[in-house]
Design goal:
Elements lengths: L11 E4 L15 H14 L3 E4 L6 H12 L5 E7 L2 H9 L4 E7 L2 H6 L5 H17 L3 E7 L6 H13 L4 E6 L6 H14 L3 E6 L6 H11 L3 E4 L13 H11 L12 H12 L16 E2 L2 H9 L17 E2 L8 H10 L6 H17 L4 H16 L1
Parallel strand pairs: 1-2, 1-8, 2-3, 3-4, 4-5, 5-6, 6-7, 7-8, 9-10
Helix pairs in contact: 1-2, 1-10, 3-5, 5-6, 7-8, 8-9, 11-12, 12-13, 13-14
Length: 383
């Protein structure tokens, strides 16, 4: 049955690089790293920053207290199990909000906590009431939502909604959801609860960004992200990827964020976890605005929007036209000649293009080789 699609306007990013991102292979953020990343994300404009549970380690607790006390615009969250001792410690750390989670799938109930559905509701209700009594923004999330019995899951959600949680969370914990399933589940949940809805999607099957978009279209209000999508296994929805997806729908959707800072933030986090920003990362990857084929370069030189759905200038990024290859077109060669200040006839430009293609057929060439051919055409004319 067709459901009315919700307009996307008042959504919030819960940036979890300092929680989910800590679970990425090789991630080990020092206190100074966390402060630096938090400051960068604050400048970018994310609404929430989620940190690891303070019960994880003494340093995790100390870092949570440090970030909670720093000057900031974002609201500080931490992520805890539905246990009273964890809730009390989180409140003591000075957080603005607490994200409670508990598994509801048969897998989690059998192999994780072993609680019945009614026991899940009772223990969660106690923790929610405590947090609300202390003025803490509270989210309740099921874990492994998409492998749970939805009748059971919705029973728990409705119980928590009645307790007055600020939002409920849907978690694709192992990345099995697809866009249609995500839209269907979120839209059904939207009709079942009155509170806000958060979506946390893992990328095991490559659907995290698409699922996050469909969650928003179905009525979700909060999306969990990490920088470059780092996290457990293949990670979760990437901050930059979500921004790119929303920008292509309407740039107004992301105007509240300082977009030119995105590349700096991704390079910062990549350096902290010992990786390069992948070449095909949306917007900031080194090939994101790289044009090569003759048909493409000709069109882009005339009107960039012909082959670019995203304006790189809005992100403080330039585009590149690749000439040193056998696919080059003469219009791109003409543009390069003009850049070099060389006045060549169309016949000369076409001849130069043929020479460049011949060189490229023989092996890899560089822009210097292209320039040498163009300057050689001038020498021939003078001769």
């Amino acid at each position: 049955m067709h459901r009315q699609q919700h307009p996307i306007h008042d959504f919030h990013i819960i940036e979890s690089t300092l929680r989910e991102g800590e679970q990425f292979q090789g991630a080990h953020f020092s206190t100074a790293d966390k402060i630096e990343i938090a400051q960068a994300l604050d400048a970018f404009g994310v609404e929430y920053l989620e940190l690891s549970t303070p019960i994880a380690s003494k340093q995790s607790e100390a870092d949570l207290r440090t970030v909670a006390a720093m000057p900031r615009r974002f609201r500080v969250l931490t992520h805890i199990r539905a246990r009273m001792e964890e809730a009390k410690l989180a409140v003591d750390c000075g957080v603005d909000g607490v994200d409670i989670y508990i598994g509801t799938s048969a897998y989690m109930r059998a192999y994780s906590h072993g609680k019945s559905l009614q026991e899940i509701i009772e223990v969660s209700r106690e923790v929610v009431r405590y947090l609300k009594d202390h003025g803490i923004e509270t989210r309740f999330s099921t874990e492994d939502t998409f492998r749970s019995n939805l009748a059971d899951t919705f029973t728990v959600y409705r119980a928590m909604d009645l307790e007055g949680v600020h939002r409920v969370g849907v978690a694709d914990t192992v990345g099995v959801a697809d866009p249609m399933r995500t839209y269907s589940l979120i839209s059904s949940l939207r009709q079942a609860v009155h509170c806000d809805i958060e979506f946390h999607g893992h990328n095991d099957s490559g659907c995290a960004i698409a699922n996050a978009l469909c969650a928003l279209q179905a009525g979700a209000t909060h999306i969990d992200t990490t920088v470059l999508g780092i996290g457990e296994r293949n990670g979760i929805t990437a901050l930059g990827g979500l921004i790119a997806r929303l920008y292509t729908m309407d740039p107004e959707l992301v105007k509240k964020y300082d977009l030119p800072l995105l590349r700096e933030i991704e390079e910062l986090v990549a350096s902290k976890v010992g990786i390069e920003v992948p070449f095909n990362t949306p917007i900031t990857g080194r090939t994101a605005f790289h044009h090569k084929a003759g048909v493409h370069t000709n069109a882009v030189l005339q009107n960039p929007t012909s082959y670019e759905a995203i304006n790189p200038l809005d992100f403080g990024i330039g585009r590149s036209i690749d000439l040193a290859h056998r696919l080059v077109g003469w219009n791109a060669v003409r543009d390069r000649a003009a850049t070099l200040g060389l006045a060549l006839s169309e016949a000369d430009l076409r001849s130069a293009t043929t020479q460049i293609k011949t060189l490229a057929d023989a092996g890899r060439i560089t822009l210097d080789d292209v320039d040498a051919v163009l300057r050689g055409m001038v020498t021939q004319e003078v001769g």
